[in-house]
Design goal:
The complex is a heterodimer of chains A (417) and B (195). Chain A is of the alpha+beta class and 417 residues long. Chain A folds into three domains: 35 residues, no CATH class; 189 residues, Sulfite Oxidase, Chain A, domain 2 (Alpha-Beta Complex), CATH 3.90.420; 121 residues, Immunoglobulin-like (Sandwich), CATH 2.60.40. Chain A is built from eight helices and 23 strands. In chain A, the strands form six sheets. Chain A has a five-stranded mixed β-sheet with strand order 4-3-12-7-8. In chain A, strands 5, 6, 9, 10 and 11 form a five-stranded antiparallel β-sheet that branches. The chains are: A alpha+beta (417), B mainly alpha (195). Chains A and B meet through β3, β4, β12, β14 and β21 of A and β1, α5 and β4 of B.
């Protein structure tokens, strides 16, 4: 994390020494650094001399006042409710995104839904069309699974700026434990009629957001999710109910889900024709491009960071694929001339973020950091240029190209692709 | 207290029937209530490409022109040229160029999608406030602005699905993975550090 490493002691020349210090809290590092630099004995701070705040203050806990993370938009939106905000991946650890930092993409604002009045209807080509309350859904057999969610518009094809942080280049990516009822459980309950092949999923927001899913995809682990990381969904994540379809573009995971309609063909909604289709150089457009292909990114060091201390630092990043598990991640510190295998931290789950790490010594010169993921199907994350050679630059969605960071000789880190 | 053997057996059988068989499925029946067409009437608003779901009603290009000025032009421009919201008009012939312009006229494959989207989501500040007649009229006007319908045209559930969109055949399926890269292959060209 940039703010941590920037406070790392200047004289931590050995990896062992650095790791020992880094094992403490950030405040401890700062204190230790001060003591090391000044050579003074460690002081007893005021928080050790008086009892702290009572429990349940507040009842729903909040981050330390020293932590000021937030989501933000890449550019000011014309319609504040029809916009996106990115997750500050450069400041997060492990694979789970805190609920308050999960990226947002809304098309007509965040509705304020009363769960008592919310209903899910399932109808169309089914034997027993139903209307369900939230209580009904919570009674049903449930699953909890950890999956990433990535907007297919994550990582723009054009307009990259050296000043971009990872929040701007890759921030439409998050990962959480999702709890709810498998769609297949409900489909079995209502009885799907012969000929059924697609499901329309529709939100209760002011956009009436709607997408068609193939029935096979809906049966491949999709969840009617009412909880995220152990608590009920946040309003901006679809409270009280969202569809969660693992491994595919985020737009399919319809928030504020109110209706599922089973049909024999796609419904050709605006969001699957004029949007979320990928325009090719020949003028044709690919439709129903669901899967999120293997991708990775280094989260630290990353754009906007200032490396101040030569010596050891751990390169950390995230890798993910919609086609199953990550099989490996390679890291280059010289722009791709040489690659090293990073270590993957388990558990390595399907359709989930996987954390990778590589020990590194920055000796003060320029460096060019890149990562490249391979998934269990053998698919290797391609360079952006290879994608552009096939798709051009106007396809808007599904840019999973290799990306990285340039470290200047004086330690400034900037977006490099 | 005295039991008869048969009575004890019946009691055990009744207890067994009341407990779920751990090896078999548990019925969910009884959860939820039936979704009749009457219950779903206000929600069942989707319109398919073949016209299934279109309501009764009709609207003309001329009616749509007046409505567009009041309900749409502030964001989409007086002639659908775009503004704070998407451009709706023009762009035909640009999709294969370096600067493609994606509009209803140049890109949308189905006219029915226009009706579906206006009905569910437009205008942005008051979605689901337009009548079926108004939605037909606005659909007709936007198609007219794109040269797809003549000025005297009127739309209803019979005629809207028959409108042939210029980019009707412009869509393909997902052909990914489309970039062959083998493990161990030196991948990088054209990546340069910023100045």
């Amino acid at each position: 994390m940039p703010s941590d490493t920037s406070r790392a002691p200047r004289r931590s020349s050995s990896r062992r020494g650095f790791l020992r210090l880094a094992g403490g809290a950030a405040g401890g590092i700062a204190t230790a650094a001060h003591a090391l630099e000044s050579g003074e004995p460690l002081a007893i701070p005021e928080w050790s001399r008086t009892p702290g705040a009572p429990s349940a203050s507040p009842p729903y806990g909040r981050p330390s006042p020293y932590e000021t993370l937030g989501r933000r938009s890449r550019t000011p939106p014309a319609f504040p409710g029809a916009s996106s905000t990115g997750t500050p991946l450069q400041h997060l650890h492990g694979i789970i995104t805190p609920n308050g930092l999960h990226f947002e993409r809304h098309h007509a604002g965040v509705p304020a839904i009363d769960p008592e009045r919310h209903r899910l209807a399932i109808h169309g080509l089914v034997e027993r069309p139903l209307v369900l309350t939230m209580d009904d859904l919570v009674r049903m057999p449930s699953v909890s699974r950890i999956h990433f969610l990535e907007c297919s518009g994550n990582t723009p094809w054009l307009g990259a700026k050296p000043g971009w942080t990872i929040q701007e280049s890759h921030g439409l990516l998050s990962c959480a434990e999702w709890t709810g009822v498998e769609v297949s459980t409900l489909l079995d309950e209502v009885g799907v009629k012969p000929g059924a092949a697609w499901i329309l999923a529709e939100g209760a927001d002011a956009a009436g957001m709607s997408r068609s899913l193939p029935l096979d995809l809906a049966r491949d682990g999709a969840i009617l999710a009412y909880a995220q990381n152990g608590e009920r969904l946040r309003p901006e994540q679809g409270y009280p109910l969202r569809l969660f379809v693992p491994g595919v573009e985020g737009n399919l995971s319809i928030k504020w889900l109110r209706r599922l309609k089973v049909g024999d063909q796609p419904f050709q909604t605006r969001e699957e024709t004029s949007k979320y289709t990928d325009l090719m150089p020949d003028g044709s457009a690919r439709q129903f491009t669901f899967v999120m292909e293997a991708k990775s990114v280094i989260t630290t060091p990353s754009g906007g960071e200032q490396l101040r201390t030569p010596g050891f630092r751990e390169i950390r990043g995230l890798a993910w694929t919609g086609r199953g598990r990550i099989a490996g991640v390679e890291v280059s510190t010289d722009g791709g001339a040489r690659w090293q295998a990073a270590s993957l931290e388990g558990p390595i789950l399907p359709r989930c973020l996987t954390r990778f790490r590589l020990p590194w010594r920055w000796e003060g010169g320029p460096a060019h950091l890149l990562s490249r993921a391979t998934d269990e199907t053998g698919y290797v994350q391609p360079p952006r240029a290879a994608l552009v050679s096939v798709r051009g630059t106007q396809s808007f969605y599904h840019n999973n190209g290799i990306a990285g960071w340039h470290v200047a000789a004086e330690g400034g880190v900037s977006h490099a692709v | 207290m005295r039991f008869s053997g048969i009575g004890l057996l019946a009691c055990l059988m009744a207890t067994g029937a009341a407990l779920a068989d751990p090896s078999g499925p548990v019925s969910l029946s009884g959860i939820g209530r039936p979704a009749t067409p009457q219950i779903l009437a206000l929600w069942d608003i989707d319109v398919r490409a073949d016209g299934q779901g279109l309501p009764a009603g009709h609207g003309s290009v001329r009616q749509g022109e007046a409505l567009f000025g009041v309900r749409c032009a502030a964001c989409h421009g007086a002639q659908g040229e775009g503004g704070s919201a998407d451009r709706l008009v023009g762009g035909q012939g640009t999709l294969a160029t370096a600067k493609p312009v994606r509009t209803v006229g140049s890109f949308w494959p189905h006219a029915t999608t226009l009706f579906d989207y206006i009905r569910r989501a437009m205008p942005y500040d008051a979605p689901q406030s337009l009548s079926a007649d108004e939605t037909y009229a606005l659909s007709a006007y936007v198609l007219h602005l794109n040269g797809i319908l003549p000025e005297g045209a009127e739309l209803d559930a019979g005629s809207l699905p028959k409108v042939r969109m210029p980019n009707r055949d412009g869509f393909t399926t997902d052909s990914r993975p489309d970039v062959p890269v083998r493990a161990g292959q030196a991948p990088l060209t054209g990546i340069t550090a910023p100045r």
